[in-house]
Amino acid sequence: MKMQMQLLDATVSTPIPPARIPDAPHVFSMSCKVTAVNGDLATPDGRDKAIAWWRKYGFTKLWLESYRHGEHAPTERLVEERDAFRAAGFEVCGLITPTMLNDPAPGASEPQMTTCWSDPRARERMRAEVARAAWVFDTVILDDFLFSPCGDGCPRCVADKAARGIADLGEYRRELMFEVCERDILPAAKAANPKAHFIIKYPCWYRNYAARGYSPARQADLFGECWIGTETRDANPEPLQACWIMAWMDALTDGKCGGGWYDALDCKPEKFVEQAYYTILGGARESLVHCYDYVLAADPGRTPFGEKAETPGACREAFEREAPKLRELAEFLRGAERGPFAMGADGVSTHEFRKNGGRYIARLNTADRPVAGLPPHGFELKGR
Q1: Continuous segment of H or E residues that includes residue 200
Q2: pTM of the complete model
Q3: Helix intervals (H) in 180-215
């Protein structure tokens, strides 16, 4: 649709057609980084406090992380927390962040954050983490570090690229990362748990997918499901991306995009809540708040690349205020047909939906001032 395609960068060729949102309850979920798994959530009192908050604000599903940035959650602890949260009525799944899997470079105190995937030892460590998570959880999501950062400066990748007879660096990275998924991750998961279902999550930076090794349509076919990051944060000049990228990825992967993931890093409380609205307006079946550590814990854990959870309390309070409206919006959109959407020059986005013969317009003000009858960062849904 022309209105929608104007939102997309010229490098994006997949259109966003109208689509019907599934007539099923929207799932509100939260991830818990390995820091929280090893910290706040490792005690009955800590779990009880978290459970009370999740219930109050409509969360029904949790994603417990087993590995991130060189830190492991012990298997027995994952089982204990999984069982405790299931007993409390939550669906519980797993999470792996595939970072720092290489050996440290000579003279370095720790491995680089992003992984060189031509390294057999890194792939062996990934297989071990996958098998461990699959043994505990039937469903596991892979955070968005399944890309290749290596180029002509990595002797191992240069040699591997030459051995494969591939001239283009982007093509080499795509083939390498698909191989990691096909030959390492999924076989290791199925060997540990034949029922294991793994999900690949893509980052927000869609312009660099091909160059960094992502091939969403092909990988989504392999995994059977993908997710998309809707964490646009303060620095993104296009806040509506948190909406359209959800719908675009679902169209690109033939309906395989199961949910959107946003966080409280590097964003004001208003932006944090804006991401929540746009994830739902984009048609997500599930919206995941990443993470417990950033909005509820005293220790946010380690973050890559200098990202900061600078206003965790304020972000939490903003979400608490908007939670009833978010649940109401998600419930209303069940079974609705998503139509055109666009961002106005005044900073107000409009979204059209049709349901039960009626036409409805949602508006979200992304500006720090009142615009068109909406307060700063205000939201409304009206029928016409």
Answers
A1: strand 197-202
A2: 0.94
A3: 186-192, 209-212
